[in-house]
Amino acid sequence: MTLETALRALSAAETRVHDLEAERTQLTLRVKDLEQQLVARTAPRDARPDPAVLSFFQDPDLPDGAVPVVSGAAPVAVRARATRETAPRPRGRQPLDPALPREMIRLPDPPVATRVDVFTGAPLMPGFTETLEVLARKPAVYFVKHYERTVWVSPAKTAPIATAWPASALSRSRIDASVVAHVAAAHFSEHLPYYRLEQQLARTGVSLPRSTQVSLMAQLDARVAPVVECLKRHVLASGYVHLDATPIDVCDPTRPGAARSATVWAYRARSPDPEQDGLVWFDYRATKSPVEPSAILRAAQYRGVVQTDGAAGLDALGPPEQITHLGCWAHARRYVVEALAATDARAAPYLAAIDRLFRIDARARVIRRALAADDPRRARLATWRERFSLPVLRTLFTRAATEIVTLPPKTPLATALGYLLGQRPSLTRCVTTPNSSLDNNPVENAIRPLKLGARNWLFIGHPDAGPRLANLYTLVENCRQTGVEPEAYLIDLVTALAGGAPSIIADWLPRAWKRRRADGITA
After folding, report:
1. Distance separating alpha carbons of residues 316 and 312, to the nearest angstrom
2. Are 338 and 416 in contact (CB under 8 A)?
């Protein structure tokens, strides 16, 4: 055997070993995923972390030279969902909601002539009462509130005096706050285009043209402006903002029949303060230039963390000495998954490493929930990422930098590794920044209703309607994040704002409104 033949055989053997290793990694990940699904489905309601989960406090430090990318005995193979607090939903027919109102209906007895035994002819006696509950619906009821008031006048022709109209009645529009709230909830929460809502109302005998609906939303936008501005201040004061942009088509008045692309920027707060955490603010802009959010952050003198995806220009928002920019590991993972879907088995180790980063953080959250607030062991969680995540991170970037030079530049794996290496500083800061998130998914979750709505109403009818859409989506999305029924909230809000802005605007944010309702306070 010649040397050249031996080298070819060795190269073929190495390739085969590499392929088998990638296949083993895929199978290992699949087995782990199935095991975690099984644990999550069988976990009882009061499940708590197994004592083995707390072994972090006895584990030795992970050496920097370790290669934990595809290890089968990972010390962090516990997912948060395996200890979910809610019990699995029971199977079979579920009882109807006991909170729904009941209408008692007594069915008439069979005729006397039929209440006899078919064999003996003897009359039958009452035996037992049988019940049946079915879910029913009544069509929406629209009615006219007819108000009357006496106007007191003077023979001297001074100004007349009369009782003010109710705050819920928009006297100039001759529309009640309940109708305004219904139109807003239907359009911005249930994603109904105005013309469909017009058809829906017409079936109940109500004529409310889409032009009138648009006018009502313009009035609503003007009234809720102080509340939206208060939400904006809270989000920008949180010190940690998830930021993302979503394109949306808008009709171009200079070119009838044509549309151009505008942008709605979504800002979502992340904060240990429960009053600020999860608050969302939308901002409409005519372009997607990162200059727009940068100007917002500068004007607000924002200091803290801004987390974005890898879009160009977003890593230079605001003054660099005031803002720490973080990347998004979910986007990095998405490119790797696409490479794996393109049957490139070389992407499997990268996917395993990224998933391990997420599992490390998930396990830390499980342990934090399991420990009491005054437990001294909670302090050691601060070193969790340093001990377990950073070695994975170093190995991942070292392998990517070595392998990318051997790949054709347009392949899916080359694209994935190029994103990883191009975003390396911001992705590293996701791990090294205390209490940071690894991904930008929270703000993408907030954008989802806007994208669902755009699939139904397709575009914004005029550029002037863009800020209105952003403001009203801000209110409705904060209701969704807080678990507030938007229609009930908007009825109270429109009524409260009828006479001008309240003295304490923060009391009318969805979270504060929900708390006051729970306490029995309605105004």
Report:
1. 9
2. yes
Domain boundaries, the chain: 219-327+440-499
Whether 14 has a pLDDT exceeding 80, the answer reads no
pLDDT digit string (tens) for 349-371? 999 999 999 999 988 888 888 88
Identify the helix (H) or strand (E) that includes residue 391: helix 390-404
CA separation for the pair 451, 413 (Å, rounded): 29
Q: Which residue has the tokens 């987390």?
A: 307
DSSP string, 438-486: S--HHHHHHHHHHHHHHHHH-SBS-TTHHHHHHHHHHHHHHHHHHT--H
C-alpha 351/C-alpha 70 separation (Å) is: 9
Number of helices (H), then strands (E), in the chain: 15, 7
The per-residue pLDDT for range 43-84, each reduced to its tens digit, is 554 444 444 434 433 443 433 333 334 333 333 333 444 444
CATH class of the domain defined by 219-327+440-499 = alpha beta
* pLDDT given at position 60: 36
What ranges make up the beta strands (E) of 81-232?
Answer: 169-170, 175-176
CB-CB neighbours of 144 under 10 Å: 7
Residue 90: partners with Cβ closer than 8 Å, 6 or more residues away: none
H/E element, 511: helix 510-518
Contact indicator for 495, 248 with CB cutoff of 8 Å: no
DSSP assignment letter at 80? G
Calculate mean pLDDT across residues 198-210: 92
